[in-house]
Amino acid sequence: MEKVSLDDIVKMGLGTMLIAKEKMEGLVEEAIKQGDISKEEGNKMLEELKKEAQERAKQTDRAIRDEIHRQLKELGLATKEDIASLRREITALKHEIEKLRS
User: Fold this and answer.
1) Which domain holds residue 34?
2) Which of 10, 29, 40, 46 is the most buried (most CB within 10 A)?
3) Largest Cα–Cα distance of the chain, in whole Å?
4) In a domain, 100, yes or no
5) Could you tell me which residues come within 8 angstroms of residue 54 by beta carbon, excluding any fewer than 6 positions away?
């Protein structure tokens, strides 16, 4: 069985979202043609769906980032934040050493 990467999962999710968007646009256009909703109502529905999709994309991005950070910690690898924190500590210690030498 072929291994699925995180990149593959993201691409599948984006593809699914694109298909869903196109399907919804088609359904709204059909509803407008049939007179079930006005063009303004259809545009409003599509705009709301777009906002919801953007919010879900942000949530998915956050979830992926959180999972990556969790995996890095589990593997014992340092993150950018870990390295930045260590640099701040080193700088503070250098200042303390300089004070003691003076």
Assistant:
1) 6-77
2) 46
3) 85
4) no
5) none
